[in-house]
Structures
1.
Amino acid sequence: MNQNAITHIEIKNLIHSVRGKAVMLDKDLADLYGVETRALNQAVKRNVLRFPEDFMFALTREEIKRISQTVTSLKFSKNVNVFSEQGVAMLSSVLNSEQAIQVNINIMRAFVQVRRLGMTIVDVKRKIDSMEKKYDYQFKIVFDAIRQLLNPPAPAKPKHKMGFGKE
């Protein structure tokens, strides 16, 4: 992902609620930072004292299954680490590139916005998932429509540059 192109809204959609905390997946952070997930987790292991349990923790199999309902790329993941806001801030000291610094700034701003919203979008998504399990297939259309409202499509990019300059 190009950190200049990602918006706060897109980052907010990568924030999940796990164990009552707003967290981001190691895979999503690695994508944002432009590194492999394996490399990100190795950097964390080399600096394990910087990441106490309230900064980073591994998801249980059940938590992975629950999140994989919305993040399909997790379906076959065995180990998934998640980072709280403080853990993401600590990553900036471990991944010290210009891209990591810029991405970190954007992520911190997104966490602040999520906190201002009181985690309402994440909570609503979780509530919808639990309600969908309780009700029959007839309500699937309603739940899908609500999900679309919570995840608005990205703005369309212009096909052609306007103006006199050629690129």
2.
Amino acid sequence: MDHGPIWRVWFPMIAGLCALLLVFMFGSGPRGPARWLGLVLGLIGLSGVIVARYTLGQSFSIAPKARVLVTRGIYSRIRNPIYVSGEVFLIGVALMLWRPSILVIFLVLIPIQILRARREAAVLEEKFGEEYREYRRRTWF
């Protein structure tokens, strides 16, 4: 029996939801529309990360590797949905806690994510060539 989906999807989803709800309920910061917007963005970001991770399946790796060119699901629209969703999640947490200092992390992570995406793109382009270039033309980031 493959326990991969439990660790790739269900455990992060439950842990992430619990953490997000704890921050929402007990975190510092004012209560009001910004907190609710933060919760919504946090849930969207968390969902995006989990869906992307699930879609990658065994192709997920920390270091860039070209096992399979995943172009289905969320990857049919966004080349790097984990990076994009992670940033949305971070903005949501910053809004919930009303801590602009967290946005500094966001600003630092953007160039790091762009560099990582470029390294991954180079690895994928080397292995998949024109198939990857075509995929890149029809997707965002």
3.
Amino acid sequence: MSSTKCYPKSMRSIFTISWQIILICFFFLMLNITLKYSSFDSNVAFLQIKQTEVNTITPYLFVFYIHVCSAIFTLLAGFTQFNSSILKNKPSVHRTMGKFYVVVVLFFAAPSGFFIGLFANGGFYSKLSFIILSILWFWFTLKAFIAIKMRQVITHKAFMLRSFALTFSAITLRLWKVILVYLFHPSPMDVYQIIAWLGWIPNVMLIEFIIFKQKRI
């Protein structure tokens, strides 16, 4: 009986460690992308194809850099929120990083994402996707914060999962872009229109499935 019980536990431990390693790798991937903007140049990386906005919309560059600099911290803070070891042994770290995550999303990352979404490549449907994404990101994070203030732990966890699913879209969007370009070679505008939605909708669907399964346990 003991070996039967230990096997699922060991498998869960392996899965947890593997998932954390994957998250760390993705974080450093995003950090590498973010560091390309460390010069705060107006014509570097992605900004090279946004020169119309940079030159004609005064706050665009400033807001863009707010988004780039804040988004990387939401990934870092978010990783700590679902680490069972931190939650169990370092609850103060969990609370502090959680507050940091909420502040960054609500006051910097989501509002700047909304503004940038208004000028997204790919036309109306791409813009609509990024606008919806930023609104949901703000709303899910706010709901998670309100829930924990009211000591509704289960609701808090569900909305934090939803919020981080949208945070993680920064990574999945780029993964889908690589996959689509490699397999199908679509035009750049088609790519933007597709990944604008693929970047976050599958994430939310997966999280909703996980939340549903947890409710049934």
